[in-house]
Amino acid sequence: MTPILSTKGLTAFYGDFQALFGVDVEIAPGETVALIGANGAGKSTFLRSIMGLIRVKPEMIQLDGRPVGGEPPHRIVSGGVAIVPEGRRLFAGMTVEENLRVAIDNASGRDGTWTLDRVFSLFPILKEKRREPAQRLSGGQQQMVSIGRALLNQPRLLLCDEISLGLAPRVIREIYEIMPEISEAGTAVVLVEQDVSLAKQASDRLYCMLEGRITLTGRSGEISRDQIAAAYFGGSDAVA
Amino acid sequence: MQWLDGLIQGVLLGGLYAQYALGMALMFGVMRIVNLTHGDLMILLALIGISLSSALGIGPWMVLVLLVPLAAAIGWLLQRAVLNKVVSEDPLPSLIATFGLSVALQNAMLQVWSADTRSLPGGGIEQASWQIGSIYIGVLPVIVLVAAICLTGGLSQLMSHTRFGRALRASAADVEAAAMTGVNPKTVYALATAIAVGVLGFAAVFQGLRSTVAPADGAAQLIYAFEAVIIGGMGSVWGAFLGAMVLGISQSIGFRIDPGFGILAGHLVFLLVLAVRPQGIFGRN
Amino acid sequence: MSQTQPLSEPAVTVRTQTASGIVAMVIGAGLIATLLSLPFWAEQGTIRSVVELCCYIAIAQMWNLLAGYAGLVSVGQQAFSGVAAYVTFILAQNFGINPYIAIVLSLAAPAILAVPVYGLLHRLDGPYFAIGTWVVAEVVRLITTNVGYVNAGAGMSLRVMTQFSAQERAIGICILCALMLIATVGGSYWLLRSRYGLALTAMRDNPVSAASQGVNVGRLRFLIFVAAAVGTGLAGSIYFSSQLRITPPAAYGAEWASIAIFIVMIGGIGSIEGVLIGAMIFYFADQWFGEYGATYLVVLGVLTLFVALYLRGGLWGVLTRVVDAPWFPTRRRLIE
């Protein structure tokens, strides 16, 4: 089966500063993959490269085997990728429903698995607050809008950048509880997480990054804490 | 009675200024670009309209029908060829680029149309008026005001209830997030500029009918548009409309105090607003 | 001229002067001396056009300081040159003050005007600040046009100048021009080499991070705005005093802004060298092609557009990529 996403020797630069050094990652349709690593390991850069926000060579990123590296973000979205960006990035000055509608307006060609009603049934609180300006919601509610917005792009691959960051444990649990429903819809998910045990629990497979390189990969259930610690902080080569 | 007349004429004048200001409010709301060719484009369109009218022997409404699509096309081209290259956090490149373009446009118009002032023949409509008591109300200025209200209402609806309007506001709020949600900002920007300049097509016809145009007049129109947007409060089309009313009334009342004081009064009200309420009269904090 | 400051422990020195800088300074001194000698050998027409060139350089350098370093893009600097020139005419013509002293005294006017203007406009950001300055210039023009004391729209003539012979006038103007260049170009150079220089350069590159590094961006911007107003005012006073006539449209015309922007953008924003190169180009272009009027201005406008789109650093930016020989070195280098 062709992977939905594969990166081949992905390198990325911010000016003269190199942030990624040949990253190879493969995501199969429908699977959930966690990407962990310390701050500055290159996780966000990796997601930004996929979304077309950083200029990379075309063949470095492939969607369904088709080279798409460096294409503008809206083309990536119409190719079936959506992102829940770090910091939520809601559209200030627009209501909850309007935020969601922007995604509906610009959804990928895939049939409407996700509807406004389905997002509202995932997060009932959003239905209540649909007419409120998005910036007036609590952090957790804003995160729900951001997830809903990404889902309404009808992705086959959903990228989640640090969705638990800054949220209360109860809210994190609430948000992670919906992950199975997303997977059941056939959507592959990449979870970028700082919380290693959360990432391990919620994923089928796992990649660990350190200083712009993948230092560990394997099935989430089979990787030991020690292996992760070594890959996370460096030291010995650890490939499970 | 003189003051009531001043007020009424000011509101009517404001209708014309609103047509200058709408496009600027739209473009600034999205791209944070002040397009210094704003006034020159209007003058260019008016001169093209006047030439079309005499070359084809058509009336002002037919000119309007031809001019608005042409204006929109010019706006699209301007955004694609120039402004998309200079949109950034740093305002300098867009300012300098449109400044250069403005100088070039003004002088090119001078070459083509000479420095003469011209106006668009309206077939008598420009003289028609209603008399109420001792006050004369021109038919044309009323049409201009009604057109301005319709354009403002239309734009406002477009912004709040259409796919394009949502994409525009999303790009204005966070261009990168909008792109990651599937919006193509360059297309949205080009469309926004096309609409903004398209509105100038209306302004051009009405300016040509109501008074005169000459190649160097663009600077004044740019300043009026800018003042209306700031007075009203940035970012909303109805704010720009109301700002244009305030500007028109200030100039009209000022003119009745002393003919040399009219335009100056508008500028002074603008500076006053800037001093006491920099977010604009109708703007939120 | 080379300044070396020993730092603490290691044998490292900070060098801020270069060979090219010393050569440029010698040439600069020679040019100033030539300027001062003009009245004794040059024709009236030559002197007049050199005075114009000096005014262009001064106005452009002041605009460069504003836009290139302080991030204050103004298209209304003619408010300051016009006001200073008008005050010169009033002091000399209506109060009988010696016109050369009047030129110096008139500098108080742009300084005083700059304070409330900055107070009013500084909260407008970027492009809005620019048009705001333009409105101010329009207001000053309209007020001048309506004030009978300065002969309203008809303008004023500097008849008191007839008390001097042509050569005496030329000597006075050339001395003032030399002082103006030393004050605007030399003063900017001194400023950029002083301890404010680093702050200004930091501010040019990134105002937010400069502020976080302890640069008082607001205060520095204010001071530069006032200083630029005074420098621009001096150029206006000298220019119109040599023309002997002033009218509101001439004094407050937007052409002044066009000239400054063209010179700085073509030459290279954020460098003194760029201003000098741009001024020379504009001066010769004006001499050779000025007769083509509108067509010539179309070309100037398109050139400015081209530079803004494709050549942000101007000609000096291109030159520095080829050879690193600054005429006004402001960088600090560590030498072991």
From TrEMBL, chain A:
It comes from the Bacteria. The keyword ATP-binding applies. The keyword Nucleotide-binding applies. Residues 5-236 form the ABC transporter domain. One of its GO terms (biological process) is L-amino acid transport. Gene3D superfamilies: P-loop containing nucleotide triphosphate hydrolases. PANTHER family: HIGH-AFFINITY BRANCHED-CHAIN AMINO ACID TRANSPORT ATP-BINDING PROTEIN, HIGH-AFFINITY BRANCHED-CHAIN AMINO ACID TRANSPORT ATP-BINDING PROTEIN LIVF. This is ABC transporter ATP-binding protein. It comes from Mesobaculum littorinae.
TrEMBL record, chain B:
Keywords: Amino-acid transport, Cell membrane, Membrane, Transmembrane, Transmembrane helix, Transport. Pfam families: BPD_transp_2. Its main location: membrane. It is a multi-pass membrane protein. The chain crosses the membrane at residues 6-29, 41-58, 135-156, 188-209, 221-249, 261-282. GO terms for molecular function: transmembrane transporter activity. It is found in: Cell membrane. Belongs to the binding-protein-dependent transport system permease family. LivHM subfamily. This is Branched-chain amino acid ABC transporter permease. It comes from Mesobaculum littorinae.
TrEMBL record, chain C:
Its main location: membrane. The chain crosses the membrane at residues 20-41, 53-80, 100-121, 128-150, 170-192, 222-240, 260-285, 292-311. InterPro entries: ABC_transp_permease, LivM-like. Keywords: Cell membrane, Membrane, Transmembrane, Transmembrane helix. It holds the Pfam family BPD_transp_2. GO terms for molecular function: branched-chain amino acid transmembrane transporter activity. It is a multi-pass membrane protein. It is found in: Cell membrane. It comes from the Bacteria. This is Branched-chain amino acid ABC transporter permease. The keyword rRNA-binding does not apply. One of its GO terms (cellular component) is plasma membrane. CDD domains: TM_PBP1_LivM_like. It comes from Mesobaculum littorinae.
